[in-house]
Amino acid sequence: MFGSSSLKTISLCIVFAALSQDAYAVVRSGNLSSQKKMNQELPTDPFVRRQVRFWEAIFQKYKSSSVVIHDIDDPIAMIDVIDFDRYVTNSGNITSVADSDQTQLVKKYIDRYNVGVERFVKFKEEALKFGPIEQRLFEVYNREPESLARLYSGNVRFRGQGGLADTFLAAAARAQEYMPYMEKTFKRQGLPLALTRLPFVESMFNLNARSKVGASGIWQFMPETAREYMHVGPLVDERNNPYKATRAAAQLFADNFKELGSWPLAVTAYNHGRGGMARAARQVGTAQLGQIINNYKSPSFGFASKNFYAELLAANRTYDLINRNGLVKEKPGQHSIDTVLLHRPMSINEVARITKLREDQLIKLNPCLTSAAIRSRSGQSLPRNYELRLPKDALKVMRQNLASNARSSSSNRR
């Protein structure tokens, strides 16, 4: 396809069949009553439902070794799938593709499909005579008159989306430790439980997730937003504590909904900003997310923002399917872990000395502690009223120490 040195395209229908055998089989009819309830809480419109179907495929069918080439403006128009685990060369041999070469290869695929689009603009249906690329484009876009019109006008753009089925399954296993607390927190706030699935979209429940633009933690809070709801400082960054960040996320969602009055807008505001979504609704003249996606023009309202709500809905359905099919095991509740407020400044070294815990144990229980807080010779202290998570036996010792110091301070003031 790309010349003698290039690799051969795999037919979309063949790849679909192969991947459906490799990916975990969770695509079954779900619990209708629970889905109906979710739809009442988190409504959709026809365009958003198309997006959800795309993201369900990404989360459920295609592994991280594959890339789906799709239409940017209508993701459900999936054009091709590259399976890097079973890539077929021009000679017909199956080969692997190095990570460093995959991005360039995806670009070559997209470039070739763009050539096909140019031919449809020039020759319309006569472009089919050029070969399988043009035939595949026509097969996808001929399903709907509006889509075919876009193809003939050249109004289509492509991108590659990596599969996430295996990544999502691993994240679902990690989520078991935190989801009970998250659901309890959101339920207490009267929020839809589906919102607790957002860390799948933001971080795949990777506690060490850090973005290039400064977002951090499983909820991927940016520093300026986080400071409205929790402590972000040189010693303590609560964005990295999944429990504290969950409480902050619940409050942020509640604030978004209070101002925007719509869950599709409130969820999208988590990515695009509350002010940004209010401005989008005003400019388009509607709160319907599908209409905003297709009509609102802003340089910052890109693919990620447009697909954010649909990704959440697809993540919610995928996680529920995984649990119903018993593909991950529930983790026992951490009944031996509790929290204590430090009523006085205290260094991590002092905490370690009092509790007899190693620094690595304290860090695992309190991931919001920064490197500055755990340096062995750091003289800096954790802030007063810091919420410290400890095993219950160490918790008892810490509370005794704090009580003793409180009594001592009281006596000294007399």
Secondary-structure element pattern, one letter each = HHHEEEEHHHEHHHHHHHHHEHHHEH
Which bin fits the share of residues in helices? 40-55%
Query: Roughly how many Å apart are the termini?
Result: 88 Å
Count up the helices: 19
Mean pLDDT: 87
Report on the structure:
The chain has 19 helices and 7 strands. It is mostly helical and 414 residues long. The chain has 3 domains: 12-30 and 65-162, no CATH class; 175-324, Orthogonal Bundle (Lysozyme), CATH 1.10.530; 338-413, no CATH class. Strands 2-1-5 form a 3-stranded antiparallel β-sheet. A two-stranded antiparallel ribbon has the order 3-4. The chain has a two-stranded antiparallel sheet with strand order 6-7. Helix 3 packs across helix 7 (165-175), helix 3 crosses helix 15 (303-324) and helix 8 runs parallel beside helix 11. The longest helix has 25 residues, at 99-123. The chain is elongated and about 90 Å long. Residues 1-39 have low confidence and may be disordered.
